Amino acid sequence: MTNEIEQLSCQELVELVTSYLEGSLSEDGRLELEHHLATCDGCRQYIQQMRATIAVTGETRTLDLTPEAEDALIAAFRAWKSG
Predict the structure, then answer these.
(1) N or C end of the chain: which has fewer CB within 10 A?
(2) Which of these CATH numbers, 3.30.40, 1.10.1760, 1.10.10, 1.10.3470, describes 10-82?
(3) Per-domain residue ranges for the chain?
(4) For the residues 34-52, what does the mean pLDDT come to?
(5) Closest Cα to residue 39, out of 10, 2, 16, 4?
(6) Distance (Å, rounded) from C-alpha 33 to C-alpha 7?
(7) 3-state class of 36 per DSSP?
């Protein structure tokens, strides 16, 4: 590890957020990301939103959705993915 922590851009943080939240970043990568979080309100909010989303989706089961809601979510995802 170097003595100086490289500053990540917000875009780089977004690309690394899954690995960070899963605990699979290298120590250097984690330190760089946490250094960025210490200086960027927007990215701190983004991480909080991602953690909240994970918590909520971890509590939601397929059985909790009506068939109509499930169909609407699948259609929305397909529309988003196709551009």
Answers:
(1) C
(2) 1.10.10
(3) 10-82
(4) 94
(5) 10
(6) 8
(7) helix
